[in-house]
Amino acid sequence: MAEEVQMTAEGFQRLQDTLDRERQRRDDAVAQIAAARDDAVDLEDRNLETAQIDLPSMEARILELEDVLARAVIVEGTPDQDGRVALGSRVVLRDDEHDRELEVRLVSAVEVDALAEGAAQVSEDSPVGQALMGRRVGESFEVTQGERQLRYTVKSVG
Description:
This protein has three helices and seven strands, in the order βααββββαββ. By secondary structure, the protein is of the alpha/beta class. Strands 5-4-3-7-6 form a five-stranded mixed sheet. A two-stranded parallel sheet has the order 1-2. Helix 1 runs antiparallel to helix 2.
């Protein structure tokens, strides 16, 4: 059996919306190919060639999204019973080096969206995400990024 993919409800919906858009793009490309074939006098029609090149990558992306969504298990965005950070948790971290706070949301790797609004998303697979998982309010941790050592303290978990 295929491995489950845990994700938040928001991440699932975002991936579902992406799948719908990709299917529409594919359908538009297929229609463009059909129209170009009907109208093509010149067999080297650039629109036809471009659409044919794009179609396999669209199909691959659709299959990938369908696979992830089929294996998805929605998790609640709340800390576990002990108040520990879990997938979907919103966490306020204090960056000890720069004396500032930042809000992050711990998400699965497949649902990270760099353009998402709100709290910054941190993948559970990233060094910060791995170090953050299971932490409680007041706990500190260090993460190596390149040549630097970053130190964070968990201020709140929600």
